[in-house]
Amino acid sequence: MGSARLSPPPAPQPQGAPAPLEQLPQSNTLVGLPIVAIESILGFLSYDETSQLRLVCKRMDLVCQRMLNQGFLKVERYHNLCQKQVKAQLPRRESERRNHSLARHADILAAVETRLSLLNMTFMKYVDSNLCCFIPGKVIDEIYRVLRYVNSTRAPQRAHEVLQELRDISSMAMEYFDEKIVPILKRKLPGSDVSGRLIGAAPVPGPSAALTTMQLFSKQNPSRQEVTKLQQQVKTNGAGVTVLRREISELRTKVQEQQKQLQDQDQKLLEQTQIIGEQNARLAELERKLREVMESAVGSSSGSGSNEESLRKRRKAVESIDSPRKSKRLRNRK
């Protein structure tokens, strides 16, 4: 017993310092529950609130990261299910689809598919490498809102009106991720320090700076898992490009239809202008005839008045001529 060494007493902690994680009474806290229980509790919250709970502690951060990653995969599956249901009800002919009652549903779901592919290409590369999680939980909530709106509404609004909020917040999230977070994550990618040494740049300080030759060689030869991830990423990128090409072709057809409609409208406008010109000419001719009739009527009325005056003058002249004759006759009688 005398030869046994006593363990040194723990160092006194300064007042106000937080206790280590293993010394916290986790059995009486939410964090001390099993992960399944924590996930079932957090399932009642929105993904935006879940993303904000990552600041609580490391354990909560891990649970929230897992829920955010699963949430993005779930919303992708839910979108695929909605799109299959809508496509099953649409006619096969493209010309009949445009006039169908589910045409706007299909347009909204196609735009959501494009947005999901862009988010997948932006975030999932680093999520698969376990460098981060799907950070913007608010984007997941907005995608769910759009999909539920499409499923519950028979006559939805136009696609740009429904997707305005989703496009804004997803674009801001992707821009912020590319500008602020990706430069930090690229330093943590496997092989980033190797490529820097091969080019001649200074290595990033840290544990990776002391790699041996065998470790460098092993990093230069990627494993099957990395090759599989790269192949999956290439497939995802190819699917995104295919979606973008399809959307571009649809937009081109819409532009051609709009141009054709504009040409038809211009032709109708020209015809209407010609008809209006003919009507104006007829109105001018009718006005001219009406003026002639009015002038002739006025002339006839004035002519009748002058005839009466001339008759009166003639009567007076005859009377003046007849008066001396009557006087002569009287004289002769006498």
TrEMBL record:
Biased composition (Low complexity): 295-308
Pro residues bias (residue ranges): 7-17
Domain of life: Eukaryota
Positions of the F-box domain: 27-75
GO biological process terms, semicolon-separated: protein polyubiquitination
Spans annotated as Disordered: 1-23, 293-334
Name under which the protein is recorded: F-box protein 28
